[in-house]
Amino acid sequence: MKKYYVQNGKVMINKYCVEYKYSSQGGNTETKFDVIQYIADDLELNGLISELQRKGIEYKITEFDVSDIQMYDGMPVESDEEARKIIEPTLEEVKADKIKQLSDICEKTIFNGIDVILSDGSLKHFSLKTEDQINLNGLVNQVSLGTIKAENGVPYHADGELCTLFSIFPMSDFIFP
């Protein structure tokens, strides 16, 4: 049963489902109808019940427990599919959203960088944004290739500071934890 629908770009919540049967005579042919009608509010429900009772049509009313989706009532959406993804996401959609959320948190944590206590006891902060990681990897490669002699110090900078020569040992604390 459909607890919600999209109307004029907004999620609308159905509170009731009314099921009824009736037949219509057209010439020598009788046509039977099984109807399921979703109702959004009490006023609309009362109007339908009055009409069904007036015509002597039996009906069954199911009241939805919409407390789980009530927060979406009136939310702007582009399509029924968008509403479904928000209100009733599939397991795969939930997993993908959770993986993205965790990935974003990890990226932010990495990009925020680290604090390192240097051999002289001073505390320095080093950002680890993408360009910082590229620079550090480049320095590691230059030290590995012998282009930069580690015993002479490795040029780099803490956040907001000028380039300084660091011993390889404090640098290895944050490059190779």
How would you describe this structure to a colleague?
The protein contains five helices and nine strands. By secondary structure, the chain is of the alpha+beta class. The chain folds into two domains: 4-88, no CATH class; 110-175, no CATH class. A three-stranded antiparallel β-sheet has the order 4-3-5. A two-stranded antiparallel ribbon has the order 1-2. A two-stranded antiparallel sheet has the order 6-7. The mean pLDDT is 86.
Briefly characterize the structure.
The protein has helices at residues 42-54, 80-87, 91-112, 130-145, 168-175; strands spanning 4-7, 10-13, 16-26, 29-39, 59-63, 114-117, 123-126, 154-156, 164-166. With 177 residues, the protein is α+β, with helices and mostly antiparallel strands.
Using brief descriptors, characterize the structure shown.
two-stranded antiparallel sheet, rod-shaped, alpha+beta, 5 helices, 9 strands, 38% helix, 177 residues
